[in-house]
Design brief:
Layout: E1 5-7, H1 12-17, E2 20-22, H2 29-37
Parallel strand pairs: 1-2
Length: 40
């Protein structure tokens, strides 16, 4: 299964097709999501 995420401050069209919304990139949303969801 594929998932796609958009940040809170993304374009509305992109957010409408995303699987989930993560915190704004202004608040390091991508880095936080990676830290919480990617195991290395």
């Amino acid at each position: 299964m594929l998932f796609s995420y958009a940040v809170e401050n993304a374009d509305e069209e992109l957010k409408a097709i995303a699987t989930g919304i993560i915190e704004s990139n202004n608040n390091d949303g991508v880095a936080k999501w990676l830290r919480e969801n990617v195991r290395g």
